Amino acid sequence: MRDHTKLRAFELADALAILIYKGTASFPREEMFGLTSQLRRAAVSAASNIVEGCARASEAEYIHFLDIAYGSAREVEYQVGLAHRLGFLPEAAHDELHSASAETAKVLNGLLRALRPRP
Predict the structure, then answer these.
(1) Sequence-separated (6 or more) residues with CB below 8 Å from residue 25
(2) What are the Cα distances from residue 51, in Å, to 16, 39, 46, 58, 113?
(3) Structural domain containing residue 43
(4) In sequence order, what are the residues at sequence separation of 6 or more whose Cβ sits closer than 8 angstroms to the Cβ of residue 80?
(5) pLDDT tens digits for the chain (119 residues)?
(6) 8-17 as b/e: b if 16+ CB within 10 A
(7) C-beta of residue 15 within 8 angstroms of C-beta of residue 106
């Protein structure tokens, strides 16, 4: 089994989840079951899927869960931009969250490229 705590991708995804929870705390109450929930679930999904992938025995399963984590990180990127355009996130918070989600996705993409078999 792999140790997820040794992966930079996990460190970034974990930090992203915390930032998202803090960043969405001031969202309008009517968004609690909308964008607030969606952003939080996507951020937690990125970190959780890295953990789950590391717990899997096969390389194929590991890659599969990293793929899901990558998709979740990209989902957060989009939703952060949407929240900003809707006026829920000020510029500074948007920039921080966008940067964190983009960096998480970038590192996950690099890890996936390194793990995938070459043709």
Answers:
(1) none
(2) 15, 19, 9, 14, 18
(3) 4-115
(4) 23, 39, 89, 94, 97, 98, 101
(5) 899 999 999 999 999 999 999 999 999 999 899 999 999 999 999 999 999 999 999 999 999 999 999 999 999 999 999 999 999 999 999 999 999 999 999 999 999 999 998 77
(6) ebbbbbbebb
(7) no
Distance CA 2, CA 23 (A): 31
Domain count, the chain: 1
Length of the chain as a residue count:
119
Rounded CA separation 108/8 (Å): 9
Which CATH number is 18's domain given?
A: 1.20.1440.60
Are 87 and 48 a contacting pair, CB within 8 Å? no
Q: State the amino acid at position 66 in one-letter form.
A: L
Helix (H, G, I), strand (E, B) or coil at 53: helix
**∠ CA 41-6-22 to the nearest 5 degrees?**
35
Amino acid symbol at 74 = R
